[in-house]
TrEMBL record:
Domain Acyl-CoA dehydrogenase/oxidase C-terminal per the UniProt entry, residue ranges: 228-377
InterPro entries attached to this UniProt entry: Acyl-CoA_Oxase/DH_mid-dom (IPR006091), Acyl-CoA_Oxase/DH_mid-dom_sf (IPR046373), AcylCo_DH-like_C (IPR036250), AcylCo_DH/oxidase_C (IPR009075), AcylCoA_DH/ox_N (IPR013786), AcylCoA_DH/ox_N_sf (IPR037069), AcylCoA_DH/oxidase_NM_dom_sf (IPR009100)
Superkingdom to which the source organism belongs: Bacteria
Sorted UniProt keywords: FAD, Flavoprotein, Oxidoreductase
Domain Acyl-CoA dehydrogenase/oxidase N-terminal positions: 7-117
Pfam families per record: Acyl-CoA_dh_1, Acyl-CoA_dh_M, Acyl-CoA_dh_N
Signal peptide: none
Name of the protein this chain belongs to: Acyl-CoA dehydrogenase domain-containing protein
Acyl-CoA oxidase/dehydrogenase middle domain sequence ranges: 121-214
Alphabetized SUPFAM superfamilies for the sequence: Acyl-CoA dehydrogenase C-terminal domain-like (SSF47203), Acyl-CoA dehydrogenase NM domain-like (SSF56645)
Family as reported in the entry's similarity comment: Belongs to the acyl-CoA dehydrogenase family.
A single MF term (Gene Ontology): flavin adenine dinucleotide binding
Cofactor dependency: FAD
Length: 383
């Protein structure tokens, strides 16, 4: 068994960290205060190859492994958690397109994602359907000339919804259940699409939004894969992206832990560094231990993806454990740093607000545990 990155992976992690420190970190807090997504962020990340990680080289991407995408997410998460959403979205959506689209569609869609000119999002959640996504109601009505459909309905809680140019939209083209759902690549600048932003606790820079489709036209050229196969093709991608999410959260937690450790060295009380007191040092030791364990789970899921092995359970473990752990660790780091950490001038409070969002988004802990329990017990013996 080998528990270390190889030389190329180590070098890549180092380069991404340098980029994140220089280019991303200076905007982390100001973007949150502005509560607005900067288009330049996508271009900067594209120049570093971070928006084309899972895109084949022939379409302008890096054709990177899943492990490399995980490394990128963790390093970016250390410096600008919200910039990591671009890695999550572009990697997940690119993966869906690469697996299901035609060659003509790939050539038309993927280069813009890789270059940062097209910011994509994925539209699944609806006001009445979040976890039970197979019951979605947004309707794709066949057009009169049978050349396509029009979309009618609302999607909500859409990450990068205010900023995105295109979206993978799941819509009902057939009967009830998953087999009645198709996936479309939709132009969000069409006048029939309207958007409304959320005023969120954290991750304010990503522009979470509701999107309303009032007769939005889509053609057969916009259909991703086969009609009625959209739900399955899209959901398969989440097994991979959930481990990326875990590493993004771990990056933010590790940055906070590093700051708390330095604080425990520098701050003195009763004539000694506060790290000499067990009440301070032991929680930090526990945090380091748990983060190391969660990191291994995330990278095992990605390694399994790269080696074509089943990884649903490991991805689910990463998704429910890492965001919760990150919130717990960052909270403890804030307490360790004390009143300075409670100020909005310090990044630790913003990281805490931000990671909480991924305890909800892209699958709740309850759903992840359901996946794990079915893997452990077998479908017949599990909930």
């Amino acid at each position: 068994m080998h528990y270390a990155f190889d030389e190329d992976q180590d070098t890549y992690a180092h380069e991404v960290r340098k980029f994140a420190v220089k280019t991303l970190a200076p905007h982390y807090q100001s973007d949150d205060k502005a509560a607005e997504f900067r288009r330049q962020l996508a271009l900067d990340m594209a120049a570093m190859g971070l928006t084309g990680l899972r895109i084949p080289e022939e379409y302008g991407g890096q054709e990177a492994t899943a492990v490399i995408a995980g490394i990128a997410a963790e390093e970016v998460g250390r410096e600008d958690f919200n910039a990591g959403y671009l890695i999550i979205n572009t990697a997940l959506i690119s993966d869906i397109i690469v697996r299901n689209a035609t060659d003509e569609q790939k050539a038309a869609w993927l280069p813009g994602i890789a270059s940062g000119e097209t910011i994509p999002c994925i539209c699944i959640t609806e006001p009445g359907h979040g976890t039970d996504a197979a019951s979605l109601e947004l309707k794709a009505t066949p057009s009169a000339d049978a050349t396509g459909w029009t979309l009618h309905g609302e999607k909500t809680s859409i990450t990068l919804g205010m900023a995105s140019d295109r979206a993978v939209v799941l819509a009902r083209t057939g009967g009830p259940g998953a087999r009645g759902v198709s996936a479309f690549w939709v132009d969000l600048h069409h006048p029939s699409v309207s958007r409304s932003a959320f005023d969120d606790l954290g991750s304010r820079a990503i522009g979470r939004a509701s999107l309303h489709f009032d007769g939005t036209p889509v053609s057969r050229a916009d259909l991703i894969g086969e009609e009625g196969a959209g739900f399955v093709s899209v959901m398969q991608g989440f097994d991979y992206s959930r481990a990326i999410i875990g590493l993004l959260c771990i990056g933010a937690a590790q940055a906070s832990l590093d700051e708390a450790i330095q604080w425990a060295r520098d701050r003195e009380a009763f004539g000694a560094p506060i790290g000499t007191f067990q009440g301070v040092s032991f929680p930090l030791a526990e945090a380091a231990t748990y983060l190391k364990g969660a990191r291994h789970v995330c990278f095992e899921a990605l390694w399994r993806k790269d080696t074509d092995q089943e990884h649903s359970a490991e991805a689910a473990m990463a998704k429910f454990w890492a965001p919760k752990l990150a919130a717990d660790v960052i909270h403890q780091c804030l307490l360790t740093i004390g009143h300075i950490g409670y100020s909005s001038e310090h990044k630790v409070g913003q990281r805490l607000r931000d990671v909480i969002g991924l305890e909800i988004g892209d699958g709740t802990a309850q759903v992840s545990k359901l996946v794990i329990s079915r893997n452990l017990l077998g479908r017949k013996y599990a909930p």
